[in-house]
Amino acid sequence: MNAPEMKKILLMGNPNVGKSVIFSRLTGANVIVSNYPGTTVDFTKGIMRISGHKAELIDVPGVYSLEPTNTAEEVAVGMVDEGDIIINVVDATNLERNLYQTLELIERDIPMIVVLNMWDETKHSGITINLEKLEKMLEVPVVPTVALTGEGIKALQSGLKKICTSSTKPEIRTKKPIKDKWSHIGEIIRKVQRVEHRHHTTLELISDFTVKPGTGLPIALGVMLLTFIFIRFIGEGLITYISDPIFDLYMPHATVFSNVLSPGILHDILIGRLIDGQIDYIQSMGLLTTGLYVTFGMVLPYIIAFYLGLSFIEDTGYLPRLSVLVDNIFHRFGLHGYAIVSVFLGMGCNVPGALSIRILETRKMRFIAATLLSIAVPCMAQTAMIFGILGSYGIKYILMVITALAVTYIIMGLLLKRIIKGESPELFCEIPPYHRPSGRAVMKKTWMRVRSFLIEAIPFVFLGVVIVNILYIAGIIDILGDILSPVVSGIWGLPQAAAGALLIGFLRKDVAVGMLVPLDMSPLQLVIAVTILTIYFPCVATFVVLIRELGIKDLIRSTLLMVFTALIIGGVMRIILLGV
Amino acid sequence: MDLQPKQKAKIKKFNGGIGFKNNLRSRGIREGKIVEVIARQPVGGPIVISIDNRKTALGRGMAEKVIVEVT
Fold first, then answer.
1. pLDDT, tens digit, for every residue of A116-129?
2. Strands across the sheet with B47-51, in order?
3. A window 435-464, beta carbon within 8 A of B
């Protein structure tokens, strides 16, 4: 090393052992952690300090061994040799399996420290581990931790300090690679670990009930229904008792401001058009009216509600169990049960949903999962707008949209499985033990996600609102409406001005749904319009992620599929719902 | 592995390539381990097994390549 370069420290280990929690502890940075394998699909970098010196800490996606089986794992394995120090995080309750990778990593001759995480759980499971003996046999320092509470993190930090100060050169091991790692592990386990037999705990009994088909499927339906009711209840509650009263208070101020501004471009952009001489939060399309109201008054309450529910479910460890129960269904779409994770994340925002397809093993599966996600899974921002606008006509219209999207998902899944070449391997996933989620952790995770919604969504909502105004003023929406009229009116039976919403939908789908309101459509036409708005194209943020995840060629294919699906489904819905 | 729920057996060997074997082993499914079937999903769906009190779900096709000996 010539310049005083920052040392690179890698956090590595099996999936779902708590690497990201340790990362948060060491760097103070917040990252999303959950109780299922594959939460971290990309490496996260952060800065930590070791005795005053800065070092770069990298949270590497979990792998079971250094032979990758999917893209997320390839990323991880490719990182190994770049590290100056490796922190190998090991699940203390599952030492035997985890040690395989530990031995693989030791062979790489990079200074290493082994962290036995979830140390507290060993007591509950009747496991005792002799740390000194383990250290001796592995010939690397071993530190027990409970990352969730912060226990042992100090010891880890001083362990890292020792490695950094001991020598600049990594010590050269003379040991030959161990040929039969498993029998070596067997020997280590015999010498360092004792397991007492324990009776099944209540959580373990629940665990069994939730994966058996007879009891698991009714429980799954119950959980889904409860989650839906919870989200609707919290979302509507926040709107009725918090956001609507605030916007009622704000209305007179906005009106005063509107009167002060003389009519003109500035008024159009900030306040928007007046409906019957009044500001209309949904229809005016001004930055300070619709822009604020859509974001904070309609979408944010549902974002909070959804992420509270999702974060809770994620932390329990229920998702892998659900993936087992739905595996059969997803197989018919050329996927396997774990694809349910991308659907769940996608219902919040399609961007994390699209990132999560990395845990799927083959190109075929990733293509199908990404295409189905973009076609038929509306994000919560859009869903909230659908609830807000169609909900006033009656719940049956919302159900129509959900049914249309579900049917589209199924039909496209069945088709894609046959059309797309490639392999679809079977489900193979670990089922982590259930955890009682901590209220603090759930709140923290919800806040992190809500914050990133605010940071990432608000600029686009505002940009969308400004562009809508410019397009109206320049008359582009009318021109576009004329051009697309054969499709929008001819095939879908919608007013041709709905074309404007399709254009803005590329930026923000929530704003686009709002643009449909002033068009005087019947509730059934609205049902068709919002369904098409979901199917026809992903928003720009998702699009950018998909370029990276699928490659440009596959994304073009996927996009063509979306456009065709929108044409056909919209046409069919018109015939069924409007009868013409 | 053709076991009914609650049945236990010892894993004897795997019928498959080296990649397949190592993939299973790295997840704790190894020769000599005692395996218990927790649940079987209907119509050829995945099974959930327990080894050393850790649960893993695997597809029926994979499970069929795991040869066990009922104890």
1. 999 999 988 889 99
2. A428-431, B54-58, B47-51, B34-40, B8-14, B66-70
3. none
* Contact (CB, 8 A) for A118 and A91: yes
Domain that holds residue B40: 8-70
Residue A96 touches partner B, C-beta closer than 8 Å? yes
Say which of A97, A208, A425 has its CB closest to residue B28: A97
Question: What fold, for A7-195?
Answer: Rossmann fold (3.40.50)
> Which of B29, B31, B54, B66 to probe by mutation at the A interface, max A CB count within 10 Å?
B54
Domain ranges of chain A: 7-195, 211-578
Does residue B57 belong to the interface with chain A, where contact is any CB pair within 8 Å? yes
**Within a domain: B56:** yes
In a domain, B66, yes or no: yes
pTM: 0.92
Top residue of A93, A118, A199, A327 to mutate, by most chain B CBs within 10 Å, is A327
Tokens representing A9 are 């420290």
Chain A residue numbers touching B53 (CB-CB < 8 A): 125
In whole angstroms, give the CA distance from residue A473 to residue A574.
31
Question: Do residue B55 and residue A211 have CB atoms under 8 angstroms apart?
Answer: yes
**Residue pLDDT, tens place only, B9-38:** 999 999 999 889 989 999 999 999 999 999
Concatenate the DSSP letters of all residues of A424-468 into one string. Answer: -PPPEEEEPPP-PPPHHHHHHHHHHHHHHHHHHHHHHHHHHHHHH
Structural domain includes residue B52: yes
A109-138 residues touching B, CB cutoff 8 A: 125
pLDDT bin (cut points 50, 70, 90) of residue A3 is very low
| Residue B3 domain flag | no
Please give the angle made by the CA atoms of B56, B58 and B59, to the nearest 5 degrees: 165
Contacts of B23 in chain A (CB under 8 A): 64-65, 67, 69, 428
Which residues make beta-bridge pairs with A134?
none
- How many structural domains comprise chain B? 1
CATH code for the domain in which residue B60 is found: 2.30.30.90
